[in-house]
Amino acid sequence: MTAKEFNRCLDALPNDRNALEKIYNEYYLQLVYTALSMTKNREAAYDIASTVMLKLAGYRRTEWINSPAGFLIRMVHNLSLIHISEPTRRTPI
């Protein structure tokens, strides 16, 4: 997906579900793998990638995004760091 196509998709959100689907189809697995490489936790990786997609659904673009993959990976990176820094929450038995 080119930067132009990506920015058009962002402009179409949230009214055009197809726009989010295009982004999802293009980048979701890459985002999962990026999160997985950082968190070493498959469930967390899927949660983080899904959170990025949900954030995109409500995103209002204020400037041109030249590198869609870089933009999305930075979002995953930031969320992964938050996940890693959170103390492990265990429920008592």
What is the radius of gyration? Answer: 14 Å
Helix content: over 70%
For the sheet with most strands, the description reads:
none
What oligomeric state do the depicted chains represent? single chain
Structural class: mainly alpha
One letter per element, helices H and strands E, the order comes to HHHH
The strand count comes to 0
Task: Compute the separation of the termini in Å.
Answer: 48 Å
Strand content is under 5%
Number of helices: 4
How much is the average pLDDT?
90
Question: How does the overall form come out from the CA principal axes?
Answer: elongated
Q: Which runs of at least 5 residues are low in confidence (pLDDT < 50)?
A: none
Summarize the structure.
The protein is mainly alpha-helical and 93 residues long. The chain has four helices and no strands.
Task: Give a written overview of the molecule.
Helix 1 crosses helix 2 and helix 2 packs across helix 4. This protein has 4 helices and no strands. With 93 residues, it is an all-alpha fold.
List keywords for this structure.
93 residues, elongated, 4 helices, mainly alpha
Topology of this protein?
Layout: H1 3-12, H2 17-39, H3 42-57, H4 68-85
Helix pairs in contact: 1-2, 2-3, 2-4, 3-4
